[in-house]
Amino acid sequence: MVHAGRKSLLRACPLLLGVCLLGGLGAPLPAEAAKKKPKTSAVKKKSTNNGTLSSKQAAEAPVVIPSSPEEIKLTAKGAIVIDSLTGEEIYGKDADQIFYPASATKVLTALLVIEEGDLDKVVTIEEVDTKVEPSAIYFKSGDQHTRRELLYALMLKSANDAAQALARENAGSIEAFAEKMTRRAHQLGAVNSHFMNPHGLHHPDHYTTPRDLAIISRAAMQLPTFRHFVGTREWTWHGSQGAIPLKNTNRLLRTMPECTGVKTGYTVKAQHVLVSAAKRDDREVISVVMHSDKPGKWTDSKILLGYGLQNLPRLRSLLDTATSPSAPPAR
Questions:
Q1: What kind and span of H or E run contains 90?
Q2: Is-catalytic flag, 158?
Q3: Residue 47 is among the residues annotated as catalytic for this protein
Q4: Cα–Cα distance measured from residue 32 to residue 54, given in angstroms and rounded to the nearest whole number
Q5: Of 73, 163, 190, 272, whose CB has the highest number of CB atoms within 10 Å?
């Protein structure tokens, strides 16, 4: 019995030896294999639109502008670029698909507050305004700020507590303001949108489409006061916490000379959203990218803005449209 067992062991030795040579009888083999995985992932990343660029690098890096719509490759699941003057679509990708807008919601919030007017009216901060999740300007109950100051915090810092204070002061409650948002959006033609809050924190019934968001942004960009806020790169907030420098979250304002605004957005459900605008020789386009990734929102937007500027409608047909009775006034 013992002799037979030894023979079996000897026959098994070559197999055991092979296992030992390949990585031993313990755990080193999976560990060594894991060390090699990042190289494979890195190779795959290089084949993507954004490569291995960081968000900052993606905002700064030049892009190749496609010569045809078929050549446009975007990270975003939904996108559109329109002529700011006429609203005409120049390019779209699932432009009527519903997505979550995240903080791009604040374009509509700012539009309603600015249309209300009296931006130097003082707003007294209430306790409920301080309970909103970050990002925030972190003011305290009893603090006082003008609507204008809160709009800077809203559009540069993307402060959710500023959105809360502006909405409450404007309509009496968040629910009432949300109703105003949806009603105004539908009046503008953004009929596939529904809003539940002024800041864009996730709610399943808070949604819009790339086209609708472009329509809302186009209306907002027709207001010089709105253009001022979204085109401001830096501003200093003075509050109970002292002086706080605010830097616009829209990196394109600092990396793309033609950029004129508009607003970033992010939540886990929405992923990265960016509404942006660019102007060249008095002609402007507005782009929207929705459900992109962090570097992709910059790369996608630069591609769309560049393509839009290169493919604007001919001036003659533009002038004919601008003078027709149904067209909005040229701005």
A1: strand 89-93
A2: yes
A3: no
A4: 28
A5: 163
